[in-house]
Amino acid sequence: MEDSLLQNWEKKSAEHLKLYKNYLNRANKNAVLKALPDLHEEAFSKIDCLQCGNCCKGYSPRFKTPDIKRIAKHLKMKDGDLINNYLRVDEEGDYVMRSTPCSFLGADNYCSIYEVRPSDCERFPYTDEDVILKRPNITLKNATFCPAVYYVLEKLMEQK
Q: 94 exposed, middle or buried (CB, 10 Å; 0-12, 13-18, 19+)?
């Protein structure tokens, strides 16, 4: 992360949450959606997820039925065994990891089930899709632990 924008990003993100919230509420949807693909690519040209891993260390994706079936098959276990060994039902009725960090995360921040990971993991951090606007509370939460979300929000606000 050599970009000066990314220096002390955690502190700056916490300080800017109110600005992000106001921006997301007032943003020109079409302009944001047009800018996202390039900003997403730019962010990930500067950020190496394997150097961070915050998403896998402190949070869990939702495991939907197709995810559970695919992962269980990959691990050569029954769906029920995957659920019993690794998952729990959260407050919203979704299957999530039983504990953090993710059981499939290695010490090197590599995912042992990367090829068959849940769709939430594949799509995270949603900086190239409309979730960034449609679910502002998730975007704001993600900005607190994902440097890519912070980076994209900062760049979007510069374009006002």
A: middle
Residue located via tokens 């962010």: 43
For 36, the token pair is 């996202």
Q: What is the largest CA-CA distance in the chain?
A: 51
Contact 111, 121 (CB under 8 A): yes
pLDDT, tens digit, for every residue of 4-49?
A: 889 999 999 999 999 999 999 999 999 999 999 999 999 999 999 9
Distance CA 69, CA 75 (A): 10
Contact yes or no for 77/122 (Cβ under 8 A): no
What is the token pair recorded at 106? 């290695």
List, for residues 135-145, the tens digit of each pLDDT value. Answer: 999 999 999 99
pTM over 0.90: yes
- List the one residue out of 135, 46, 150, 18 whose CA is nearest residue 158: 150
Q: Closest by alpha carbon to 125, among 68, 56, 72? A: 56
Distance (Å, whole) CA 35 – CA 39: 6
